[in-house]
Write a structure and sequence with these properties.
By secondary structure, this protein is α+β, with helices and mostly antiparallel strands. Helices cover 32% and strands 13% of the residues. InterPro entries: HATPase_C_sf, HATPase_dom, His_kinase_dom, Kinase-like_dom_sf, Prot_kinase_dom, Ser/Thr_kinase_AS, Sig_transdc_His_kin-like_C.
Amino acid sequence: LIDLLSVQTAQKEITLRVKYDPIMPINIASDPNRLRQIITNLVSNSLKFTKKGGIIDIKVKFKEENMFQIAIKDTGIGISKEEQQYLFKKFGKIKGKVQNELNPNGIGLGLVIANTLAGKLGDGKGLKIKSEIGQGTKFYFILLNQLNMQKSYNKSVILTNNLYQNTKKQQKEFTKIERKQIIVAMEYVGKTSLNSFLRQKIDKKLDESEVKRLFKQIVQGLDYCHSLNIVHRDMKLENILLDKNQNIKIIDFGFSICAPESSKLKIFCGTPSYMSPEIVSKIEYVGQKADVWALGILLFVMLQGKFPFKGLNNNELFKNIKKGSFQLAYDVSDNAKSLLKNLLNVKFEERPNTQNILKDVWLNS
C-alpha cells in the first residue's frame, strides 16, 4: 500500500498523504498504481472517475507546497452489490441528502475524496471539486484555511458621512485573514420583520398613520442608499426588520449594486411579487426606479394587507404586473391613493425618485 506520494506539478512539488479507511473492502485499496494515477490526475487539474467518461475538474491550481490527508472511497469496478450498498449507506450522504436519492441505481458514484487541509493553499481561494452532471455524483468540496478577502468597501461610500472611521479598521483586518475562526460583531436588530409584524394584525394591515411613520423611514433609508448610487433590488417585507422601538432597518443587500441612475441594468433578479414591469419584461431597467416600484408594493401591502398583483404562477403574475391595474379593498385617503398610483406607474420614467417621495403631501401631512 502507498503511504506517501510526492507528485511533481508544473509549478511545484505537492506532497499528499494517502489514508485508507480500515473498513473499506480490500479490492478497493489494493492497486497502488491506480491510486498514484488518481493523485497525479488530482493535482494536474483533472480527476478521472472509475466509470468511463466521468471527469472531475479542479478549478484552482496550487502555487506552493501543500499537504493533504485524503481518504479514497471508490464504488467503481470490481465491487459487489452488497459492498456498494454498504458504502452508499456509510459514505453516501452529501449535504444532508442520501446518495441513493441522487443515484437511485446505486452505481456511478465513481470516486469520493474526503480532504482535510493540513497546510495552506497558496492562492487563498480554496480547492473546489465538481463533477460533470450525469457522470457519477455532483458535489462540491471546498477547503478554506487562509482567505484573502476582496476589499468590498467602495471608497466613495466610505468617505461619506464619517463612515470611514467606522470601517477603516475592519477593512484592514479583512484584507488578509490567517485565523481559522473569524468573529464578526454586528448590530443586533431582532427577529421581527415587517412581514411577521403584519401577520400579527387581524387584517394583516396597519392603520394609515402607522403606515406613514414606517414607510417614511423605509424611504429615508432607501434614499440614503440611492444618494450613494447603491440600488437594493430586493426591497420586500422580509428584508425590513423592526427594532425594539418599532423603527425599521433595511437588510439583505445580496442583490444590491453600485449603479448611477443614468446606467441601465440587465440582471433579472429580486422577488417576483415586488418586481417592476420592466424587470419582468426582461428589458434594461433603471435600478432606482425598480426600487421605487417595490416601495409601492410595500406601501400597498401595509395599507391593504395583500399584494396588488397576483397570479396562479409567475407567468400570470408577471402579466398582471405589466398591466399595472390594481384595486383597493379598504378605504385610504386620497393622498395615499395618489402616492400609490405614482409609485406603481408602469412607465418607470414617470415614477418619482426617493427625494420627491419624501416631499410627498401624504408623507408630510
